[in-house]
Fold this protein.
Amino acid sequence: MTRHRFRRLVLTAMAAIAIVVGSFAAAAQAAATEDPWPDLARTVFGDRPLLDGADVITLETPTRAEDAALVPLTVRMRPDETRYVKALTVVVDENPAPVAATFGFGPKAGVTAISTRVRVNSYTNVHAVAEFSDGKLYMVKTFVKASGGCSAPALKDANGAKTQIGEMRFRQFEPAASAGASREAQLNIRHPNNSGLQMDQLTHLYIPAYFVDELKITQGDDLILTMQGGISISENPSLRFTFVPNGAPVFRAEAVDTERTVYKSEWRAGL
Amino acid sequence: MRVTSDSETTRQHRIATRAVAIAAACMTFCSATSPGVAKADDAVTPLEVSEIAPGVFVHEGVMALMNRDNEGAIANVGFVVGSEAVAVIDTGGSVREGRRLLAAIRARTPKPIRYVINTHMHPDHVFGNAAFVGDGVTLIGHKNLPQSLATHGAHYLANLRAPMGEALIAEVKLIPPSQTVADTLELNLGDRRLTLTAWPTAHSDNDLTALDQASGTLFAGDLLFVRHVPVLDGRLTGWLAVLDRLARVDARRAVPGHGPLVLNWAERVADERRYLDRLATDIRGLIKRGVPMSTAVTEAAVSEQGRWELFEAYNRRNATAAFAELEWE
């Protein structure tokens, strides 16, 4: 999916919700009775067949969203010698902007696992669709129960979220066991990732959507991954992933948000 | 709105259609049942309240999640009667509970309700607001309450529709405060004053407490949980800092947001601090070891299980929020 198309999808979904914002709850409730996936799949992947991904990808989500604003999700992918995983799309079906993120992976990056956190509005299927380098699409899904009561997929500290926007933290976990083996790293970015669906009670204007929509992580000149994100990605987006170190001395990350502000950082590769 | 493709148009149209259908169904339902509601109004059973100090009344919520059977009445709500007027502290988890609280007030005093205070945005504390709004009533909340209610309110309604049922949810109105507190505010009830204090982000980002000076009673809202496991929906480090200040409030007794009211409330603050400290210490250790969030939340603060009610319902959620906060330290 192109960047432009992704933005359009996100914005259209938000426009649709803005129409019914007064009946937001009603729409979410009604959605439980009708499976949005066939329409979503057609919109995102066109007529391309989605193969059963049970043998090549695994999607891990909690059965219950403990905190609707922060639902951890991991996708593990099993490429083989002949093909690598080119892209991965995560869809939270019942969210106002269902496509949470689309990841692209470098051909030599060796990314086989990626974790992030998403907002979950209501009881929903979550789909992960991986595109392998031979062009085949593989799909798996899980079901997440929304948490009830006072849990909401919104900011916990509205004013606190406005500080240090764009600050990035990069962490490398245990060193690779041997040359060519994979290791794990995590990138966190401070950003409110606002959904833009709520009315500001002081100004009575809808808060504009404000989120990280592009992210790129490289080691030296080689791409590890890109992300096109949406409002279903939690506040302070976090990506934890495996990769195969290429020996380059630095990691770089570049993020762009919906106000076209660019955030860049780099870190020395750890031992 | 920009229409970009046929399938998107269909989807938008379908969502909009659904909403209209639901709204229509709701209106039909509401109008069909409104005579029944009016009848229930006439015969509304006053909420059971105890007079914990002269002129200070509290209803103790049940130790449960909000549901149809308990009508959302899980939080402690109360009122203070002065020589001229009444102040209500939290309105309960449904309009029905709000009406029952109103009936309890009217059974004890004919004095006007001048102030209705929301201690924070959570549904069990504000869903009864609609029972109280009217001429001469000032609805008061923390300066952050309007914003947080706006961003969370629709989700509360959606999340609670299933456990509470359409009838209780349909009449809830999310009513923002007409006056907000940024720091402190004194309310005059005639012969007694309430001191309202707005706190930095702790349990939530809009915690407000009310201290009745005459009796030395602190309505602590959800800054204080007793027996009920504390619920984190703000900032863990902020809450721990607030507890230091809260413990210094000169009050003889405290009404927690949940759990029995307590005289030895410093000890209950210490209990809560122990849980929150344990959560912070465990999460920090797990982050340091590189344990991912999904695993960490199953391990943090488990040593506290058995000391708290509703632990299963909230501990992992607390750990999730704590992890997301503390990984930025």
Summary: Chain A touches chain B through 71 residues (CB under 8 Å). Chain A has three helices and 17 strands. The helical segments of chain A are 3-19, 24-31, 37-45. The mean pLDDT of chain A is 87.
